[in-house]
Amino acid sequence: MDTDKDRINWSEEESRALHGRLLALGVKVAVAESLTVGRVQAELGRVSGASGYFAGGVTCYATEAKVRLLGVDAAHAAEVNAVSARVAEEMARGAAKLFGCEIAVATTGYAEPDAARGVAEPFAWVAVVRREYLVAAHHRHPRKGLCHAARRVRLCVAGRRNRDLAAKELRRTARH
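Request: output the structure for the sequence above.
Response:
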């Protein structure tokens, strides 16, 4: 899996900076993935010592798994094929609860067009939660959007001012 094609492409510097901040704060992170099929977990775990902050994650492709494991609302998920800001948020909150973590990241979306569902181009929803705070964004280009995830997590863990910066950054990058 460690090919350029399969990587989300966080830089070594981004990975180490996130690693250092999470260890310094003593917080644990959980991940819930659909679209990214484990790639966010792989990035979080690639730096030695990741067990100091990475509690675990789940990859749920099936809507039923999202509902059962993460507490995603079944009726809403059925309406939107489990792809929406709300689903991403519920996945993140569910992962935080499942793993007993303060911070969680979730991804959902379409990796390719789906004419049957009216999806003309790939897109992703990414949600990062810390306690009661939520940052979520829609990206027309899933890979590009996910490359910004490490920066958002770093900003979210650093306090209110930086969470506000993360929200601003999400709004800016979501337009691209």
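Residues 8 and 147 are 6 Å apart (CA to CA).
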